[in-house]
Amino acid sequence: MKAIVLAGGRGKRLRPHTDEIAKPLMPIGGMPVLEILLRRLGEFGVNQAILCISYKPEDICDYFQDGRWLGLDISYSRTDQSLGTAGPLAAVPRPADCCLVLNADILTDIDFADLMDEHHRAGPIVTVVAHEFLLPLDYGVVTCDDLNSVVTLDEKPALPILVNAGIYVAEPELWDKFGEPAFLDMPTLLKQVLASGSPVNAYRHSGVWVDIGNHTQYQYACEQFLADPQRFLKGSGQQSALKCR
């Protein structure tokens, strides 16, 4: 099973740390966030990983090398400029089977075996992991009926929403959407897939998911990991579930 990891972000919101350290190498519990993710993928049966890199590429290559020390076969797809969250995929050869596509800067306890099972059951060209998130509001919310009679008053509630977790399962047909490598973000790509009539499925995840994109989230990720490291490093023992069917 192959994973393509988007590891080219500059991490501007994590400055000054990322002026010196590539964002995927940001340490959590003494271990780079990308190493934690790769170790978890390996626990679920992933044995190949392609790292898409552009910012501080030598640092990432020097750290992960060929991946044998992680039990993985790691290779690299390098571009000289940032191509967004989907553009780097155009520089990766079309895979022979379905594969995982992930952002490199996330900490999660997602069950990759269950994700793959759902993808194969539904049969879309792409499955998007949708994380269940509570969005806090700074205002009181008023609910009225059709006659403008107040039904409820909720002071600063948290609204349940689904957010794109930056984790996908992609079929090889997705590569038919690419031309030459150019800047492209994932929402734009998925809109193109939907506009073409191809199905896109969502997989709901209610566990731990943290994007370390800013200082607050990075600190939260460190706290979550230190509270229970094995939650993020170990898999379910269902390696066979990650075979494409």
What does this protein structure show overall?
With 245 residues, this protein is α/β, with parallel strands linked by helices. It has a single domain (2-129, 163-242), classed as Spore Coat Polysaccharide Biosynthesis Protein SpsA, Chain A (Alpha-Beta Complex). Helix content is 25%, strand content 29%. The protein has helices at 17-20, 33-43, 57-64, 112-122, 186-195, 215-227, 230-233, and strands spanning 2-6, 27-28, 31-32, 48-53, 73-78, 99-103, 106-108, 126-136, 141-144, 150-154, 158-170, 200-205, 209-211. The strands form four sheets. It has a seven-stranded mixed beta sheet. It has a two-stranded antiparallel sheet with strand order 2-3. It has a two-stranded antiparallel ribbon with strand order 7-13. The chain is globular and about 65 Å long. The model has no long low-confidence stretch (mean pLDDT 89).
